[in-house]
Structures are given as structure tokens and as C-alpha cells.
Input
Amino acid sequence: MALAGVSLAIARGEFIVLLGPSGSGKSTLLNILGGLDVPTGGEVRFADHRLTGADEAELTRYRREHVGFVFQFYNLIPSLTARENVALVTDIAVHPMDIDETLALVDLTARRDHFPAQLSGGEQQRVAIARAIVKRPEVLLCDEPTGALDYATGRKVLEVIARVNRELGTTVVVITHNAAIAGMADRVIHLANGRIARIDHNARRLTPDELSW
Output
């Protein structure tokens, strides 16, 4: 089984890191939290929404209205500018943020009219974050958001994610293989063989500049 006996509650506004080796169940857990996968047993709830037993239309509405996704590979549309990639999401959002304010939040105002091929990897990842948060999601789920980036670029991306959590109050869950990133979290969930091995609580969250990679 990909997951077995996992019991977890995440509070509004928390910053959670899921840490563990490949095959430990991190991505499966993230996908279940995001309504992308449906568990074969147990129960999943978001606020007063019961996701267990929800049909595809209900899960689609949950993802559209409540969840933002950021993946290791940016999935940007190459024929659209940074601003246009972000603007696409506002068409399905109920109360979207201003597009230019969102790009400013991820420090991309000067690059807003550039196409993905004209942007660095870190800039493309920040466009992906802007696209995820422009719809004001209550939850931001990030699967290895710095996995394809070098140290300096990855740190900039982490600064953006931390800022989204701090300034917008967005609940953040980040998958990573990089144990150093765990210092940014309120709690670190260690997974092994589909189970929670242990949970660490950080007395003080580190900034990206304080991390020892």
C-alpha cells in the first residue's frame, strides 16, 4: 500500500513539510490532500467538506475553489507570457487577486511580459506559484518546488512560498527530499514505507537565508 494508517490534522495557516525518501508515500498523501487521488479507505476532510465519497465534480470544485498546486516542473503554457499564464486561472476563480499584484508578490513585475522560454528556471517556478495563488487558495500544495533548481534560485522560490504563508495566511504543505528545508516548517512529517515515522515541531521557523543546505 502507498499509505497505511496515516492519521494527520493540519491547522489553518500552518507550514508543513513532508519529508522522506522516494516511495515513502509523500506524493500520494499530497495528492489525496489535494483531491487528485481518492484513498481506498479512511476519511479525508477539509474544513466542513467531506472529501471521502465525493464525486469527480465535487472534487473538481474543491480543487478549483480551495487548493493551489505547485509542482517540480512548471507546466506553463509556452505560447503565453508570464502574465497571461497567471491570468488564465482568474477565469475560473471566484474572488481572484489582482494579476499584477500577484506577480509583484513573487517579484516578477519586470518579467510579466516575457514568455517561459525567456525566463530562468526560478522565474518560471515563481510564475507557477503566482498562478497557484492568484485564485486565493486556502491551501498551497508544493511537490518538490526546488527540486530542479540550484541553491540560490531555490532559496528565492522558498522565500516566495514563505511569504505567501506569512502574508496571505495560506496553509502550505511542501514535499521535499532536502532535509534543510524542514527548518522553515511549523511541523515536519517524516514518512517511511507509507506511514508517519515521526513528527517534529519547530520552536522557531527559519528563514530561507538561515537554512544550511
User: Anything to note?
Assistant: The chain has one domain: 15-202. The longest strand covers residues 195-201. The radius of gyration is 17 Å.
